[in-house]
Amino acid sequence: MSREVEDIFREAGAVLEGHFELTSGLHSPVYWEKFKVLSSPRHTEELCRIIARHFASQALDAVAGPTVGGVILAFEVARQLGTRAVYAEQAGDGRDFRRGLTINPGDRVLVVDDVLTTGGSVLEVVRAVERHGGEVASVAVLVDRSAGGLAQIDGHAVFSCLTVSAVTYPPDQCPLCAQGIPLTRLGSSQPPSP
Question: Which of 2, 71, 108, 159 shows a CA-CA span of 20 to 30 A to 65?
Fold first, then answer.
């Protein structure tokens, strides 16, 4: 299955090579541009089907994802599971549910996200669910860049459609910077590259 998932990303041109600053601030020679995949309804449906099948036997009340990429995934996984989708937006130092979307006390929630590197945005969604009295049933991501190093986030198991070993460096220890290779900033939270 993982080969099939990687093929989807490669077919979409979503695996980029160079020198990238990730949302986490870390640097990497590989960038997984999930929006190249998420812009294809067929690919998005296929990837979300993997997640939905994995969690089909669980009683879930909602699927929650962080804005921006997690919105598409939460919607499609929830659609396939026949439940509702909610989206956690930036709110101060974390995330919260807005626009009339909420988690009810006791709701069992699957948290989804696109690419997992450090788990920061997933953890923010987990904490938002718990703040509202919901129970996080599990976490699911399209790509786990940590090579399985984040098998759990805040005590919640992580399921990934694809697990890869992607090298990352703190900026002050980045050999790509030392070689003078230009840094590319992609993603909605990054300022554009010069």
Answer: 2
* Placement of tokens 């962080």 in the chain: 66
Q: What is the pLDDT of residue 37?
A: 92
Domains, in order of start, for the chain: 2-185 (3.40.50.2020)
In contact, 51 and 81? CB cutoff 8 Å:
no
CA–CA separation, 99 and 87 (whole Å): 9
Q: Quick: pLDDT tens for 109-166.
A: 999 999 887 788 899 999 999 999 999 999 999 988 777 677 778 888 899 998 888 7
pLDDT confidence of 69, banded at 50, 70, 90? confident
Whole-structure pTM value: 0.84
Sheet bearing 135-144, strands edge to edge: 94-97, 84-91, 62-66, 108-116, 135-144, 156-163, 152-153
Question: Distance between CA atoms of 158 and 153, rounded to whole angstroms?
Answer: 7
Handedness of CA 77, 167, 18, 3 (dihedral sign): negative
Tokens read off for 91: 């709110």
